[in-house]
Specification:
Blueprint lengths: L8 H5 L12 H14 L5 E3 L4 H6 L13 E5 L3 H13 L4 E4 L3 E5 L10 E4 L3
Parallel strand pairs: 3-5
Antiparallel strand pairs: 1-2, 2-4, 3-4
Helix pairs in contact: 2-4
Length: about 120
């Protein structure tokens, strides 16, 4: 059974769509704990694992790192929190980061062939 130091199963159940910690990649969970440790603030998950079917139903490709349990969207409502999350993610070696108005996406999609070393926004 997969476990995290800073995240409970119930936090994954509150995601949209609801999921389980067990759906997540074990290595990514360890990295997520490290990001939380370095950020020094609680991290609230908006989205974690998504099934390929769910992804495609939303008009996406189904190739998202979310579909492999290697991505999360972390709620972020101000620039100071955004900076702490991004700084911690980069310090942990995460090289795929998306920035939205109310969240920061982090993933290790390069493990499944997605481009590494990219930062993008969701403002369009």
């Amino acid at each position: 059974m997969k476990k995290c130091k800073y995240f409970a199963e119930s936090e994954f159940k509150r995601c949209d769509p609801p999921c389980s910690m067990q759906d997540m990649d074990a290595g990514f969970l360890a990295l997520l704990d490290e990001v939380r440790e370095r950020a020094g603030i609680p991290l609230v998950l908006n989205c974690a694992y998504r099934s390929i079917a769910h992804d495609k139903a939303k008009g996406r490709t189904g190739n998202s790192a979310h579909c492999s349990g290697m991505a999360v969207d972390i709620r972020c409502l101000n620039s100071g929190t955004r900076w702490k999350i991004i700084r911690a993610a980069l310090a942990c070696g995460i090289t795929r980061i998306g920035v939205g108005k109310t969240f920061v996406h982090i993933d290790v999609g390069e493990r499944k062939g997605l481009p590494p070393c990219v930062i993008w926004d969701y403002y369009n």
